[in-house]
Amino acid sequence: MTSTYQQMIFVNLPVNDLDVSKKFFTELGYTINPKFSDENAASVVISDTIVAMLLTKPFYATFTQKEIADATKTSEVLICLSAESREKVDELVEKAVAAGGTASEKVQDMGFMYGRAFDDLDGHTWEVVWMDPAAIEG
Q: What's residue 136's pLDDT?
């Protein structure tokens, strides 16, 4: 019997206020894993294979010698999450806005693919996209 290894992704993001950022992501419906969280970091469980590590800027700085980007002024990364339906795309973006995030005015609607985006409280851009399974298969 062989086990199937599922590769995970850990997105490390610098944040200005860890408690405020934790509240934002829990309002989107995600949970914080206390085993990997402390006063410097919060482990936000997005799925079984996706974790966002929210790090205070001083702690984040211990992992890099580069200047930390101000995500409200500079695009450092675009994080894209899949959604199970067009409605789920809208639902997550609307939750983000209600929690204090900012929605992008740009909506991508190509029929087989639908997407929107929001910036979190620190300016990190999160895209949310649904793709018709028939288009992926075919």
A: 73
